[in-house]
Amino acid sequence: MSTAKKNDSSPLKPFYIADTGEMIIIQTAGLVFASFPSPADDFFEGPIDLKQQLIPNPDASFIVKVSGDSMQSAQINDGDVLIIDRSLHPSNGCIAVCFLNDGFTVKRLEIRGKSVRLLPSNPAFLPIDLVEGDELTVWGVVTYIIKKPS
Amino acid sequence: MVALLDMNSFYVSCERLFSPGLHGRPVVVLSNNDGFVISRSNEAKALGIQMGAAVFEIRDLVRKHGVKVFSSNYSLYGDISARVMNTIRRFAPATEVYSIDEAFLDFSGMQRYDLPAYALKITQAVQREQGMPCCIGISETKVLAKLANRLAKKDLNGSSVRLLKSANCALDLDKVPVGDIWGIGGQYAKLLEQNGILTAYEFTQAPSAWVRKHLTVVGLRIQMELQGIPCLPFESAPEDKKTTGSSRTFKICLNTQTELGEALADFAARVGEKIRKQGSVASILTASIETDYFRKDQPQYGRSFSVSFTTPTNSTILLVNAAKFALGNIFRDGYPYKRASVMLSGLVQEETVLPTLFDQIDHEKHRRLMLAMDAVNGRFGRNAVRTAAQTAGGVAKLTHQASLSPGYTTCWKDLLRVNVGFRSGWPSDVWEVGRGGLLF
Predict the structure, then answer these.
(1) Strand B2-7 vs strand A95-100: parallel, antiparallel, or unpaired?
(2) pLDDT on residue A37
(3) Residues of A in contact with B415 (CB under 8 A)
(4) Which residue, A24, A80, B164, B167, has most beta carbons within 10 Å?
(5) ipTM of this model?
(6) Which residues of B touch A (CB under 8 A)?
């Protein structure tokens, strides 16, 4: 009987061959079906990648966290996480992260020609009309709202 | 044709992206240990704040003009830089990332296009998508593209794009001092000036045999590049670094061998992780320690020690051991140590290493252990698993960063908070209150 070197830390597993009494070592990679390969193997596409689905432009995308309730009828609530895509051009009716004068906010944009209004989505708040001297930067367009069910 | 894109005041621009209120205001970013100024906004430059100025030198200006000061947030800058580099890749068949804020774009075969208009589109894309202002210089060679970029940047009111053609750029080159040419260092600049060659234009007119004799073939290549003859190859795949290192100036001086040992172990662990990422192994580790050079009142001492490995390695355990061994050879009691470093050199690709006959170390075991350690640390954060020789808080604990901005793009708990306004019981920092945007 020939013996193979025994090594506890080795991933190699010894197999005994019954009729000759010899021990050989076969390296196994994961689970191998001896006779019936999985019929799903040829169709394997990998699990859904949420990042790929929700963030198609990762280099231009940013994630921010919301506080406040001025956008609650647009389903944006305190504590929600927003995905922002800066590569998108803001269009009328889109929701965007804006920087107005000295602070960030999230509002729906009403774009008419060259004039822009910021619309809250909460009857308790008034639309913001830009006046002379106001400085507005549309920082990025909101593409997804991520929230925990309450 | 080749183009060089260079981001304007890059670190400052990264900070401004998440603090847009800082546009138009003087802003500076400090070096790793809040030591000196490494990035300045135009407003800060206008105040006379110099590159490399020490913090104590600008203290009065900061107070008087309300200069906004940031510690360097390299994880943020690194992330934004990678995003910009990815963005510009779609505009050129090949790009060469030259530094954290500069990249060459290969425009060869595109001469027939309106290149300035095309480059303007690139700057607009980078501005829109990453919010980074940048300038692009275009020319026949890298050295000229670099000069063109400089001209675009200096022209504060003009376009952010500049095309320089070697056939008619004599006037522009004549305004550039030789010391400002890419690749002409202080020594060469001095030599040229002593010989009456003061501007880039005059350098192009110098006899090439003379240039070759005094500035070697390196200088000759730069001269030819300035004349519009490409000599520097386009390197789209970055060359593997042959050396790498980690060093810090400590916020307080370290006095004992134990403290220094922990710091050096941290550095060794960090560089180990770094070279494992690039798939290389190191042949030599050099550890250095030094006292505070600026405190002439204190005793001064500084020394390095190198350890060479029989078989090149990237195992944190072996690197940490080597660093400790090196420290044992150079440490002297009675000195306050202010700075320490670990350098790795003789880096080679891991797969090219042949095992040595008399090596007692099971390198395969180390390799698997490091693989597991990196996987765990990748998931649970750096230093989740570390050698017992390292400090508990990591290197960060030892350094001084008083004005660090959050990791807006790299850390979930640091996400930008956008306050959209509360109906009632708003926190005091809600800006909308004062704007009359609220009903009640």
Answers:
(1) unpaired
(2) 67
(3) 63-65, 81
(4) B164
(5) 0.73
(6) 20-21, 82-84, 86-87, 125, 128-131, 365, 408-409, 415-423, 426-427, 430-432, 435-440
Q: Locate B428 and state its tokens.
A: 């005091």
pLDDT at A107: 94
The pLDDT, as a whole number, for residue A1 is 40
Q: What is the mean pLDDT of residues A77-93?
A: 94
pTM of the model: 0.73
Comparison of pLDDT for A38 and A107, the residue scoring more: A107
Positions of chain B with pLDDT lower than 70, given as ranges: 236-241, 357, 392-400, 422-440
Contact between chains at A65 and B423 (C-beta distance less than 8 A): no
pLDDT of residue B239: 55
Is A114 catalytic? The answer is no
> Is some CB atom of chain B closer than 8 A to the CB atom of A84?
no
Q: A67 and B420 in contact by Cβ < 8 A?
A: yes
pLDDT of residue A138: 93
Q: Is A38 a catalytic residue?
A: no
Helices (H), B66-141: 74-89, 115-130
- Which candidate, B365, B356, B366, places its Cα nearest to that of B319? B366
Residues B371, B277: Cα–Cα separation, whole Å:
10
pLDDT reported for residue B429: 38
Whole-number Å distance between alpha carbons of B275 and B22: 37
Q: Can you give the pLDDT at residue B363?
A: 85
Helix (H) or strand (E) holding B158: none
